[in-house]
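Much of the work behind modern protein science is quiet bookkeeping, done one molecule at a time. The protein below has been through that process, and both of its lines are reproduced in full.
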Amino acid sequence: MNGRFVRRGLVLAMALASLAATATPASAAFSNTPDTTWMTNGVVYSITQSSGRIYVAGKFRSLRRCPTGVTCPGGTIATNVGALDAATGAGIKTFKVTVGGDGATVYALAVANGKLYIGGQFTSVNGEPRMNLAAVDATTGVLDASFAPQVGADATDYVRGVLSHGGMVYVAGTFGTIDGAVRQHLAAFNANGSLSGAWRPRTSGVARSFTPTCAGDQIVIGGSFTQGAGTGTAIQPRKTLMIVDATTGALDPWTPDNDAIPNGVTAYDLAGTCDALFVGYGGANAIYRYDLTDDFGDISWDLKTGGNVQTVALYGTQRVLFGGHFANTPIAPGTTTKVKRVRFATADFGGNAFNDWTPELSGKFFGPWDILVDGNRVWVGGAFTDVSGAQQFMLARFSDI
């Protein structure tokens, strides 16, 4: 067994015990009809939560109580980054953020130290210059004047992923420099907002997704690269996935099964347990489960969906949730028998399809871009206008009650 897991035996045992204590029942009580919540008038790319609030961002101009095209007196907030009450689903009118620039889009959000970090493709926030990354007060939306890194040379060098973990803020994207310092697709910022000089891994292509390992001292990185390197070390084969130390950026020996991963694919999103990594792929049109118990990242199973899997999340210890632009999914790994699943599906950790919760998200091509689990509620954001026959634009919530 990999020494990485032997050294962490106590941490692993504690984590597994904690998960077992909060395990989700095999049969959930979600309705296919979404809860009554506010929505947006454009695509949602990222959802995060903190202190009873849900934050959403993407490419939209307003948060709305009712669908676009429906008269909604007093039910519209002009903002590019929205905040909602996590319990009621209502928009918070005191929180507003304006993101500017040609085609301005926010792709990623994270909360740390009372600040909401905003990553994407933009040149200004709240009227002040900001290049692809900024921070605002998580309560008021007021821009943090002390945090203004120059990410990339211009707005074409954008940020695709942001992670808050262990007092650090990690970013991934298409950029090659930050404040003139070389940072090839990856970087980290210290708690005081300074660029970390210690954490300098890099990838050969775009990095876009993160998840911490269950012990918390390492970060799994996904994207469209074929090679990766740790801080100050030579680049090595790492097709779409690699693991690095959360503090030093050192490359872990764990290597995905490079030969088994198709060429030209992108690891859009990641979700992990102590022994497994679930990856949503674009290009491969599939969700994969990888083994994390040793240094060899064998593929435990895959489900070919016929369309990109753009977001993955875990609900307790029983369910993997995934979304994208697909219309069906195999009923189990290794079979050609498929079941209808319109842009959203759930399976057990063995890849077997659940049939008790099958909402259909339609009206737009791409479907979900992000899934957030908040206790017994699941938020889904993306490109859709109809959820199981109900008008629900770009953002929906489901409750396990």
Observations:
- The radius of gyration is 20 Å.
- The longest strand covers residues 43-50.
- The mean pLDDT is 93.
- Residues 9-21 form the longest helix (13 residues).
